[in-house]
Amino acid sequence: MRYSPPLDGIRAIAILAVLLFHIAPARLTGGFTGVDVFFVLSGFLITSIILHDLKDGSFSLREFYLRRVQRLLPNVVLTVLTTVLLWTILMPPGPAHQAAIHGLWTIFNLSNIYIWRYLGGYWGSAAEWSPLTHTWSLGLEEQFYLLYPGFLLLLARFQRRRVRSWLIATMVLSFLLCWYGTHVFPSASFYLLPTRLWELLIGAALAAHPALLRKETIAPRSLLGVRTLEAIGLAGLAMVVLSFILINGDSGFPGLVSLAPTVGTGLVLISVADEKTRLSRFLSSAFMVRTGKLSYSIYLWHWPLITLGKSLAHLYGKPQIYGALAGGVVGVLAAWCAYICVEQPLRRRGSGRPLRFAVIAIGFSLTAICCLLGISRRPVADSAHRFDPPAFLGEQYSAGNAAAGLEQAIKSPRYYDVNFPPIPPGRPIDRWRTGGVVHLYGAAHPQVVVLGSSHALMYSALIDNICREMHISVAFLGVDATPVFFGTTPNFNFASQSEAQEFDQARARWLREWHPNAVFLIDRWDNSFNTRIGFDQALRSLLIKVSPVARRVFFVSQVPAVKDGDQSNLRELVTWRIGNDNNLPLLYPDLKDPLRKQAVAIAQADVAIFQNLRVIRTDLPFYKEDGSIRYSSGRSFYYADGDHLSQTGAEVVHELFQSAIGEATSVSPAQSE
Q: 469-478 pLDDT, tens per residue?
């Protein structure tokens, strides 16, 4: 097949978008859709190559796979080996161990499955800080390359006149599954082949057009006029560029919105087919072609080094953007070296090919051994045993899908040293329908009710112990990943919007039925704080529903969140940064600290409107005089992660909750004895 320069230009557009997105995601929120551009292009090229060889009678499955090995494996093996070694040398033990595990899955082309099972959503912190997250797309493409040639070969032999029809039918089925799955199982729909197959088949269907089967051409002169091709190309390019700018993590991706970058890429392919349009000439320019040739290598190397730069900046208290920029520059340089020294020499055919395969096999084996050695070294967050291991009992009090919440927590490297008691088998995932987690220590109906998200769960064991000691019945209606405000939306606790609405209705019904003495409103308030006016309106709307049915309503302030604490195991971070003077490092609140303080001020102002409202300042004990965070005392470590207290941390504010419950119920600890 004849080489087509514009195709390298399309690669250049895709890789530049991905690179900019990974360096500064806020600047190009949809840059990650460059991967979708790669998918369409890959389907087009692979189908073109296979059909061209079938037309010539020279197609061989064995040769196809050998070429794939030579083209793709050397650089990815070197990337994984380098990443595992860098993380072992430069990073704390937890991330190093995780990189070794992920590296092993990556070289066996299963990275997308690993991320789906163990790291969670693409925009979650676990995926964001894994150095090999970007290899999910490589795993998906390799799975496509493994299955697709045989499928296409069977079609070409037994359904020769219907090849394109079968490809289109399969594409439509995959898209419908993707559309449905984006709402029902979003993480799986993002990472797995069945729901992404349609993107590759867009390119495949274009390549299977009868006009594209002529010998020695990748795309003959189109039947369309040049002006029409110009318009098609510009429309396609606009769709792709607008995808880079307008799409973001809240767009319900992939779903319907993914049609923009994929269909846009298909239109660009049609436009540049005969290489006569201005868009084709632009994509064939020297810079675009050179960038496109480097695109695979850049894709492999940029993300690990950006992540390393950000991680080191975070570990040593520097701005992350500096680390990301440095990592991006070094990543491009490393990609160029790998392309010249590894990718190009080892992909050649002809004499010496067996030796090149031997080199690839040795590199693969060495990388696998290094990954296995890294896996065998179990991470220890606190090798000096400075602190007692933290515990988090919150999921025991979840009124929702506690098992799913616990599973997500256990998957995250942030929690590998945190003690999470197991959820008993067979526990209902909708306990909110029956009042939540109810403990009747006294009256026949709960006198104390706890509402909120995981921040409510982190105080639940403490509140439960206080109520038991004071012989006061209590109900926990907190649900992980679910804000306290009414207007709940679907998540892993609620499969649909109607079920989420039913949860809101159930909470309101239980409160009206019980008329509790005390209702605790506990949440991560900074996540709900868009504007001061908006938060005030949301809080008042909540209080209008809760205040009339309770004797006392307690707004519980949010404890300080550690700057960049969501990206690290906090105890590991602390022990890693202990200096030669053996002093514990200072940890400071993140940039949302002013929002948390504004939320408290708004709640305090609302006390004048809602006479039974009280504000509990649980945040104050965790601030030091210099503005840093009090995260430990002696052997006690107060935080389970960057914004959740451990059980020991929750006990710090025991008296505040005990006093509040006593005030609301008119029961003192002495009376309960």
A: 999 999 999 9
